[in-house]
Amino acid sequence: MAELVRRTRMDRTGTPDLGGALETATAIDGPGTGWDLHELRHSGLTHLGEAGAGLLELMAKSRHRKAENLRRYFKPSPQAMRDLTALLGPGAELRR
Question: Coil, helix or strand for 10?
Answer without folding.
Answer: strand
